[in-house]
Amino acid sequence: MTALEIRDVSHSYRKPALRGVSFSIEPGDFVLLLGLNGAGKTTLFSLIAGLLGLQQGSIRVLGHEAGRSAALAGCGFVFQQSALDLDLTVAQSLSYHAALHGLSRGAARVRIEQELERFGLGSRLHELVRTLSGGQRRRVEIARALLHRPRLLLLDEATVGLDVPSRRAIVQRVRAACTEEGVTALWATHLPDEVEPGDRTIVLHEGQVRDDRRDIAAASLPDYFARLAS
Amino acid sequence: MTAKALRCFVGIVEREWLRFLSQRGRFFASLVRPLVWLVIFGTGLRTMVDLSATPPYGAGVGYEDYIVPGLVGLVLLFNGMQTALSMVFDREMGSMKVLLVSPLPRWYLLACRLMAGVIVALPQVYAFLACAWLWGVRPPLSGYLYALPAVVLAGLMLGAVGLLLSSLVEQLENFAGVMNFVIFPVFFASTALYPLSRLGEASAVLAEVARFNPFSHAVELVRFALYGRLDTTALVATIAMTVVAMTLAAWRYDSGRILRRQLGAH
């Protein structure tokens, strides 16, 4: 069973945002969805999450129709826009997410401590989210997305605006989740330097898949995008 | 109810409660508003409004006794709008998505959020009733118990209307205007401050507006319950309005209309 299967998906607002997008991802794979701002990445993520209704095409998540409870139960999301309650502590914020996924208090407490330790944030458990730096908040969001042990992790511009160490910590944790825990990850970004040799890279441009292969060299991507834009 | 659904409900209530506790001013504001009405307006209008033969009260009822259920309604009305405002805020800040991608039906998530808002309103309502008791408004003690389900139901109705409003308002900045547009007409054109019979003597049109105003029914439900009686018409009207508003709100949140608008603006 494929982790994610997208077939001929098109979506329009006042103008087309996605046009005939098709691709699939096998379990355990780490896939980059690379595209400039406005390429349609967030629209595609919103369709996968069931936050938008499908206008055309089909999306199956872990064998289930996108947006269904069974599909959502197996997914972890990190949205482009930070979505943490600033007035709650890190522990309270993560406990809320654990509750939304039906985790018991005991299981949630153990997993919260584990995930925060992996990100080096174990000591910040009882601090207000608003006291954390941007990079720390983002790490808390990745920890949150992994809390309920999802099989498919969807990250929309998860490292935008962060410094290099924070970006590296986040990318390493997600890659480790794929290799060590069998998590499948779809990582949307507009930053070519997040592509590593051998990564499967899907290039989305103006709502269309323009490329989908494993041998895209990060160094060549700026020129590649310049050609697409022209 | 499954264990996961129950855990989700508890989590949503806890979050609302923690947010409420972090906004200490909200509790005092919710008390000051009705107390100003009770102490200043109640005293000023005490001798001007004739309330004889106004059910469920007996003869010699004071104006302050009459307006207390209406002011309970005011507390619930503001709380419902606060719930709506926090929904719009969550949508703008992105945390709404976290709620909507959890693996439970959206109508259930919204119902949990609605109930959480009512639970947060209960201490506000009973703190106001305690202040009113100190001011001399003393319904039978059993009335405080009978009023609980009525307050919950009224809170659900006003919260559901708030949820529906939150699905209609596009931007946070617009919401303050909408709140004023809703709260004051709904409050004044109701039976919260004057009985329907007195309104009818002054203006037949206003009396008809108040008669059909769902807020009037919520207030009457609380008023009768405080004196150990049930107003069946108010009960039916309040339940019906809750169901209609909640169904429409769930439909709007479930259909992705709200996010489509946000994303489409990019």
Mind sketching the topology for me?
The complex is a heterodimer of chains A (230) and B (266).
Chain A: E1 4-12, E2 16-25, E3 30-34, H1 41-48, E4 56-61, E5 64-65, H2 69-73, E6 75-78, H3 90-100, H4 105-118, H5 134-146, E7 152-156, H6 164-181, E8 184-189, E9 200-205, E10 208-213, H7 221-229
Parallel strand pairs in A: 3-8, 3-9, 6-7, 7-8
Antiparallel strand pairs in A: 1-2, 1-4, 4-5, 9-10
Chain B: H1 3-22, H2 24-45, H3 63-93, H4 95-100, H5 106-134, H6 141-168, H7 172-188, H8 196-202, H9 204-212, H10 214-226, H11 232-254, H12 257-264
Helix pairs in contact in B: 1-5, 2-3, 2-5, 3-5, 3-6, 3-7, 3-10, 5-6, 5-11, 6-10, 6-11, 8-9, 10-11
Word description of this protein:
The complex is a heterodimer of chains A (230) and B (266). Chain A is an alpha/beta fold. Chain A is 34% helix and 26% strand. Chain A has helices at residues 41-48, 69-73, 90-100, 105-118, 134-146, 164-181, 221-229, and strands spanning 4-12, 16-25, 30-34, 56-61, 64-65, 75-78, 152-156, 184-189, 200-205, 208-213. In chain A, a hairpin with a 3-residue loop joins strand 1 (4-12) and strand 2 (16-25). The radius of gyration of chain A is 17 Å and the shape is globular. Chain B has one domain. Chain B has twelve helices and no strands. The longest helix of chain B is centred in the first third of the chain and has 31 residues, at 63-93. The interface between A and B is large, with 38 and 35 residues.
